[in-house]
Write a structure and sequence with these properties.
The protein is an alpha/beta fold. The protein has one domain (about 5-170): Leucine Aminopeptidase, subunit E, domain 1 (3-Layer(aba) Sandwich). It has helices at about 30-40, 45-50, 90-105, 125-140, 155-170; strands at about 5-10, 20-25, 60-65, 70-75, 110-115, 150-155. The chain has a 6-stranded mixed sheet with strand order 1-6-5-2-4-3, sandwiched between helices. The chain is globular.
């Protein structure tokens, strides 16, 4: 059975098979975790992303990790928060589901997620954490290669929110 855990760390330093980037639909880098990942990976990451031609909200794409310790980057495009009535939860769940699917298709063993949509996209952290943990739990058994999923949080309040949701959803 795969292990799911919450850590507080800099996602760009993790030695996992893939880190999941909270990307924009152009896959062109940006601010926050997206910018940090692009800076740490080097210019080859942006070049590969531009060749992909973008990614719609709710979907994900995979690239090499280049100068990162992670072998791959999965770029998941989360929704901008508009109050919760514009299908944000469904789109966010789709990001996690597609990221897990890509990890499984590439036989990856370890995946670390950033807090998708929780930065400049304004998704409330407690609600995003619930969607993230629930969706990963619902699909993890469909991807037997995946042995470890980490929710890599930046900052104590985000870490606390993810840990609270994970502890409430612990399997018996």
């Amino acid at each position: 059975m795969a292990q799911i855990e919450v850590i507080q760390d800099d996602i760009t330093t993790l030695r996992v098979d893939a880190i999941v980037n909270a990307a924009n639909s152009r896959l062109a880098g940006g601010g926050g975790v997206d910018g940090a990942i692009h800076r740490a990976a080097g210019p080859e990451l942006l070049a590969e992303c531009l060749r992909l031609g973008g990614c719609p909200t709710g979907d994900a794409r995979i690239t090499a990790g280049y100068d990162l310790p992670a072998r791959h980057v999965i770029h998941a495009v989360g929704p901008v928060w508009h109050g919760g009535g514009a299908g944000e939860a469904k789109l966010l769940a789709s990001c996690y589901r597609r990221s897990m699917q890509l990890a499984g298709e590439h036989n990856l063993c370890s995946v670390a997620f950033s807090a998708i949509s929780c930065g400049v996209y304004g998704y409330p952290v407690d609600q995003a954490a619930h969607v993230a943990v629930t969706e990963v739990r619902s699909v993890i058994d469909q991807h037997p290669s995946i042995e470890l999923v980490q929710f890599c949080c930046f900052g104590e309040s985000v870490t606390r929110a993810y840990r609270e949701v994970l502890s409430r959803q612990q399997r018996p």
